[in-house]
Write a structure and sequence with these properties.
It is globular, with a radius of gyration of 13 Å. By secondary structure, the chain is mainly beta. A hairpin with a 6-residue loop joins β5 and β6. 0% of the residues lie in helices and 48% in strands. The N and C termini lie far apart (39 Å). The strands form two sheets. Strands 2, 4, 5, 6, 9, 10 and 11 form a seven-stranded mixed β-sheet that branches.
Length: 123
């Protein structure tokens, strides 16, 4: 079964940092743009960041700009989301998704989704 797997979530204090990882299962990430999404309790899922296949193009949710950084290592077949200066409002389940067509704001265009990893920002 083709899917992606997120890891790296956890509990962190406000102002802290976490790095999430996204790894594929059953395929290579080289040909896929990777999007990061999150869903907070009681809220709709929203796009946080996306990186294209080469890693040369990235985009971010406005509230993540300057704090989050997405990168990829195609040799290691992984994508990372470095999150700095975390705030309580960043608390959510974070998902990565793979899209062979490129970064998209539309969730339905993504081919594979992970199960998510919980990020909790609290003192």
């Amino acid at each position: 079964q083709l899917t992606v797997v997120e890891s790296g979530g956890g509990l962190v204090q406000p102002g802290g940092s976490l790095t999430l990882s996204c790894a594929p299962s059953g395929f290579f990430l080289d040909y896929y743009a990777i999007g990061w999404f999150r869903q907070a309790p009681g809220k709709d899922r929203e796009g946080v960041s996306c990186i294209n296949t080469s890693g040369e193009s990235t985009n971010y949710l406005d509230s993540a700009k300057g704090r989050f950084s997405v990168s990829r290592d195609n040799d290691k077949n992984a994508v990372y989301l470095l999150m700095n200066n975390l705030k309580p409002e960043d608390t959510a389940v974070y998902y990565c998704a793979a899209d062979h067509r490129g970064c998209s704001e539309y969730e339905y265009e993504y081919d594979y989704w992970g199960q998510g990893t919980q990020v909790t920002v609290s003192s």
